[in-house]
Design goal:
This protein has 3 helices and 6 strands. With 97 residues, the chain is of the alpha+beta class.
Length: 97
C-alpha cells in the first residue's frame, strides 16, 4: 500500500492533457501502479485541497525500444484522469493555460 505522497508520482503535462484541462477540467497524473481509485481521490484532495468528482485509471504498457541489436522495453505505468468539483483548480503545474 503506497503512502499519500507516493500515490501521485507526477503530473502529465502534454498538449493533449492541456486541451483536456481547458475543455473539460480534467487533470492527468502518473500514479503508483498499486494505487486504487479511492487512494488516488484521497491523495489529490489532501495534497491540493480540492474536491474530486471522478477518477479514471488505466494501465499503460511500456513501449518496445531498440537497445543496440536487441529489443528493450520501457516500464509499464499507471495513469489517472481526475475531474475536480466545479470551481476547483490545481495551481502551480502549468495547467492554468
Amino acid at each position: 500500500m503506497p503512502t499519500l505522497h507516493r500515490v501521485i508520482v507526477r503530473p502529465i503535462i502534454t498538449e493533449s492533457t492541456s486541451l483536456a484541462y481547458q475543455d473539460k477540467g480534467e487533470y492527468v497524473f502518473e500514479v503508483h501502479p498499486d494505487a486504487n481509485k479511492q487512494e488516488i481521490r484521497e491523495a489529490i484532495e489532501r495534497l491540493f485541497n480540492v474536491g474530486v468528482t471522478r477518477v479514471w485509471t488505466m494501465n499503460v504498457r511500456g513501449a518496445a525500444k531498440r537497445v543496440g541489436q536487441s529489443l528493450g522495453r520501457r516500464p509499464h505505468w499507471k495513469k489517472a484522469i481526475v475531474t475536480l468539483k466545479q470551481g476547483d483548480t490545481i495551481e502551480g503545474f502549468g495547467f492554468e493555460g
